[in-house]
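Researcher: I'd like a candidate sequence for this fold, 501 residues long. If you have to choose between options at a position, lean toward the conservative one.
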C-alpha cells in the first residue's frame, strides 16, 4: 500500500523536501521532466513530433524542461507558453532561459498583439504527441480564455495526449471538472504519489493510463489515505496443514427473497471460493431447490414466515454474517434484520437491501455496531439513503461522506464506485483494482461474500473490508481479459478469485 495524496498534502511534502531536506526545487522539476521524457522514450521507438502546452506556473516549467530534454535527444519539439508573463513562476523563468540557450522552439502568444490564440495552435498540426503542462495540482477554478481554447484544441486534435502530473482543468482532490472543459489525456505521468483526483470523478476518465514516477519526494505520514495494492493480500491467512472445514470459518448468508435467489447464490459461492470452510444460506423456502442444484457445496435453511427462534439459532452458528443481498424490504426481511441487529455476536456485513432497511432506522446500526464489528457495502444510491446526501454530491466527496458516516456510527463503510473508498473511522483506503466491467448485476453480492469469508477466517474487520474490495476488483479485472469489459458476469469474478489469493 502506498499513500494517495490530496493537493495540500502533496504540496506539504514537496515543500519539506525542498526546505528540510535541502533538495533544490529546480532539481525536483528536472527529475519530473525526466520521468515524462522516459515515458515517451519507453513508448516510442521512433522520434515523433512533440507539441507542448505550458502554463504560467511550475507545471509549465515541467513542460519547458521536457521540451529542452527531448530537443537535446533529437526529437522535433515545439512549445507554446500561455498566460501573462508577469505571473510566471521563478522556476518557469529559469527553465525558459535554459531552453532558450539550447535553441528550443518556443512561442509566446502574449508577446504578440492582435493575433488569435487559434492562429498559434495551428503550429501543432503536424505534431504526433501533445503534452499538457498548463496547470498542475494547484488549480482551483475552471479553464478560461486561452487555456480553455487550448484544451479544446488538444481534445479535438486526434493526437496522442500526455498530461503532466494531472490533466489541466480538474480538482486534484475530488476529480471534478472545475469548469466547462478539461484536457482528456491518453496517459498521465504523476509525480511522487498518486493523487486522489486521478482515481475519482471526471478526472479518472480524463487521465487515461496513469504512471507514478519517483522524483525524490517521500511522504512519511502514515495517517494519509492509502492506495491498496498486492500488499494487502499478505494479511490473508494460509490454510494450516491440520485444518478442517470447521476451522476455516463458518459464514451465514441471509439473502434472497420470495422471488429472488441469484443474490444469495453469488454471495455464498464467493464466500466458498474465498476459503470459507462452511457456508449456510438462510433464504425464502422458494429458493432452496433452485440453489441446491447449482451450489451443492452450501448448506441451506428455508423460511416462509418470520421465526425469531429460528433466526437466533442460525446466527448463533456463524463466525460471520452476510445479510442483505436480494433480501427485499418486506416486513419479514425487516424483522430478520432487526433480530440480527439485536442479537448478533459475530461480525456482520450489511449489503444491498440490508443497507436500505438500515437507512430507515439507523438506531439499529448503532446498536449492532456498539456490540460487534459492522461493515456496510453501499453503492452511491444506497449511501444517499443512509446519509441523506445526493448521489452527485457523494460522487465528488466520497472520502469525506464515507469517513463521516463511519465515525458517526462506529462502523466500516465500503463505498462502491468505479474507485471504491473504504472508510474505517479515521483511516481511509482507496481501491482501484477493478475496472468498468464490474458494473454488472450481482457484482456487489460477490463482494459481500468475499468480505464475509475473510471475516470468518479471522481477519479483523478493517483488513477484511480492504482486502475484500481489492480481491473483488482484481478478480474482475483478470476476468475481463477473457470476457471483455461488456461480457463480464458476476460468476466470472468468482471464477477468478483463486488467481488473486
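Model: Candidate sequence:
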Amino acid at each position: 500500500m502506498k499513500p494517495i495524496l490530496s493537493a495540500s498534502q502533496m504540496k506539504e511534502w514537496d515543500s519539506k523536501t525542498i526546505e528540510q531536506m535541502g533538495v533544490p526545487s529546480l532539481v525536483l522539476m528536472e527529475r519530473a521532466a525526466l520521468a515524462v521524457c522516459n515515458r515517451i522514450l519507453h513508448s516510442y521507438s521512433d522520434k515523433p513530433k512533440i507539441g507542448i502546452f505550458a502554463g504560467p506556473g511550475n507545471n509549465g516549467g515541467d513542460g519547458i524542461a521536457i521540451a529542452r530534454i527531448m530537443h537535446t535527444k533529437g526529437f522535433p519539439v515545439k512549445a507554446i507558453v500561455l498566460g501573462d508573463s508577469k505571473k510566471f513562476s521563478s522556476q518557469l523563468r529559469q527553465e525558459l532561459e535554459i531552453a532558450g540557450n539550447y535553441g528550443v522552439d518556443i512561442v509566446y502568444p502574449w508577446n504578440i498583439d492582435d493575433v488569435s490564440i487559434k492562429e498559434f495552435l495551428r503550429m501543432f498540426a503536424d505534431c504526433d504527441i501533445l503534452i499538457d503542462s498548463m496547470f498542475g495540482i494547484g488549480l482551483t477554478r475552471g479553464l478560461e480564455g486561452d487555456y480553455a481554447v487550448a484544451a479544446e484544441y488538444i481534445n479535438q486534435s486526434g493526437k496522442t495526449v500526455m498530461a503532466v502530473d494531472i490533466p489541466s482543468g480538474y480538482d486534484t482532490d475530488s476529480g471534478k471538472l472545475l469548469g466547462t472543459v478539461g484536457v482528456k489525456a491518453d496517459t498521465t505521468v504523476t509525480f511522487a504519489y498518486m493523487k486522489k483526483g486521478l482515481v475519482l470523478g471526471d478526472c479518472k476518465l480524463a487521465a487515461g493510463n496513469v504512471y507514478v514516477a519517483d522524483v525524490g519526494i517521500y511522504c512519511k505520514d502514515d495517517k494519509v489515505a492509502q492506495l491498496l495494492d498486492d500488499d494487502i493480500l499478505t494479511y490473508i491467512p494460509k490454510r494450516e496443514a491440520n485444518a478442517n472445514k470447521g476451522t476455516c470459518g463458518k459464514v451465514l448468508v441471509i439473502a434472497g427473497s420470495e422471488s429472488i435467489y441469484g443474490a444469495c447464490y453469488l454471495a455464498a459461492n464467493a464466500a466458498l471460493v474465498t476459503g470459507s470452510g462452511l457456508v449456510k444460506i438462510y433464504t425464502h423456502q422458494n429458493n432452496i431447490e433452485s440453489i441446491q442444484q447449482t451450489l451443492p457445496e452450501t448448506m441451506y435453511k428455508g423460511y416462509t414466515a418470520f421465526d425469531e427462534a429460528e433466526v437466533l439459532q442460525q446466527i448463533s452458528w456463524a463466525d460471520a454474517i452476510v445479510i442483505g443481498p436480494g433480501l427485499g424490504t418486506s416486513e419479514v426481511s425487516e424483522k430478520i434484520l432487526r433480530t440480527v441487529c439485536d442479537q448478533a455476536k459475530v461480525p456482520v456485513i450489511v449489503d444491498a437491501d440490508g443497507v436500505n432497511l438500515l437507512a430507515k432506522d439507523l438506531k439499529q446500526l448503532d446498536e449492532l455496531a456498539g456490540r460487534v464489528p459492522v461493515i456496510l457495502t453501499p453503492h452511491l444510491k444506497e449511501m444517499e439513503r443512509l446519509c441523506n446526501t445526493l448521489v452527485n454530491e457523494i460522487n465528488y466527496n466520497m472520502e469525506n461522506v464515507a469517513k463521516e458516516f463511519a465515525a458517526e456510527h462506529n462502523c466500516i463503510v465500503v463505498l462502491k464506485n468505479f474507485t471504491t473508498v473504504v472508510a474505517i473511522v479515521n483511516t481511509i483506503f482507496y481501491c482501484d483494482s477493478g475496472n468498468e466491467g464490474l458494473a454488472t448485476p450481482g457484482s456487489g453480492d460477490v463482494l459481500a461474500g468475499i468480505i464475509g469469508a475473510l471475516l470468518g477466517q479471522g481477519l479483523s474487520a478493517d483488513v477484511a473490508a480492504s482486502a475484500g474490495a481489492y480481491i473483488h476488483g482484481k478478480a474482475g479485472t483478470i476476468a475481463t481479459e477473457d470476457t471483455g469489459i461488456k461480457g463480464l458476469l458476476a460468476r466470472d469474478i468468482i471464477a477468478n478469485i483463486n488467481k488473486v489469493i
